[in-house]
Amino acid sequence: MSGFRALLVQKDEGGYRVEDKQLDDAALMEGDVTLRVTHSSINYKDGLAITGKAPVVRKFPMIPGIDMAGIVEKSTNPDYQPGDAVVLTGKGVGEVHYGAYAGKARVNGDWLVPLPAGLTAARAMAVGTAGFTAMQCVIALERHGLKPADGPVVVTGAAGGVGSVAVAVLAKLGWHVIASTGRPQEAGYLTSLGAAEIIERTELSGTPRALGRERFAAGVDTVGSTTLANVLSMIKWGGGVAACGLAGGMDLPTSVAPFILRNVALLGVDSVGCPRALRLEVWRRVAQDLDMAKLDALTSTIAFDDIIPTASAIVEGKLRGRFVVKM
User: Fold this and answer.
1) pLDDT tens by residue, 162-182
2) CB atoms closer than 10 angstroms to residue 211
């Protein structure tokens, strides 16, 4: 056994805290694949886990980090052999099973996927759960039958991790993307990703009407609450909104009006329990439909020592784009 560095979230009589520890293989949780973690990422959800501002972590102590890429060291799973490059997003790691912010991880091989063709480990983590979720949203809109010719698509929380990737993918696919953000100084950044219009989030933050002016054919919402309610009220007849976030709250102050008078669909998107077949399809689409030059432009690389301050800054809304942790 060899030692490795890990962040460990503790919650006891001493309060909620994150400790920098040295662990060994014996400390890892059960699983049939042990891997050396080479890269991870920081999502809004990771920020909540690090800061304790929402009950993301449900078992203590816990190694946070919901995304990991690495190299298999040991395996009793027939699908993986030592030396294989793999990726894991979601599946409860960093919440109920030791996650990515450690030198090693032991997990269930069924949670893993091979490193997607055409992606390096670093780029796979630049995508991470945020980009994976963004692509799920795009697929959800497509499965509902929506297409660029139907009209514009609005992306809320556009400067965040999910929003940034959603803007880039939708623009590449030919959509007229309207990016909503509370940070007007990011207009140039969002335009560089492909946004055709930038709107202030205040346009979507007022008291929702049962029905507003039909403004968007589709939406990708990362905020929830009042913002989602406003977007729903402005969707054209037969349109839909892929909803994947709750940064603004878990409530939804809307009415049945958009659904029964305009045939609007609310398409829920969850990346944690995403089944393997769809997981593989999402990664295939990421490699195909995400402009890697734009992915690189919206990504910053940080070190292990930077995880805690970066996670805190993401929760406070101070950062944009994606953050890869080079382990």
Assistant:
1) 999 999 999 999 999 999 999
2) 16
